[in-house]
Amino acid sequence: MDLNNNDAVAVAEEVAAQPAGDHEVVDMLTEIRDMTKKELIWQRVSSSALLVLVLALIIIGVNVIPKAVVAIQNVSEVAQVAIDSLHEIDVMVSDVTNTSQNVNKVIEDNAVPLSDAVNNMSNVDFDGLNKAIADLQDTVGPMASFFNKFR
Questions:
Q1: Residue 45 domain-assigned (yes or no)
Q2: Is the full-model pTM beyond 0.70?
């Protein structure tokens, strides 16, 4: 018979209200006592199980929480390093952009003079220049040998 405390009290009140023999009362009280003992055993088992569960949670918490804190700190440090690296990359990209703009400005500023210099070099008469150098050599050569005699 599966009765809880309220049912046991109700049964006891019914027995007390009815005229019955001493034997029936003793049987009912024995049954109530047995049910109360069973309830007490189950309450002890439940409280023991709950105590084991709480202790297990405390042990797990003591072991896991410090490791989790260390892991979170490591992740935080790695994230900070990544943020610093990204900042350095931004600075480098800015520097490269500025340098390329400066190179473009130098090229633009010197484009006309460079173009003029190339045009002037292409307009030079190299054949005429070579002939003039050869004529100068022919003219200066005898003079040089004349002056070398006085040394």
A1: yes
A2: no
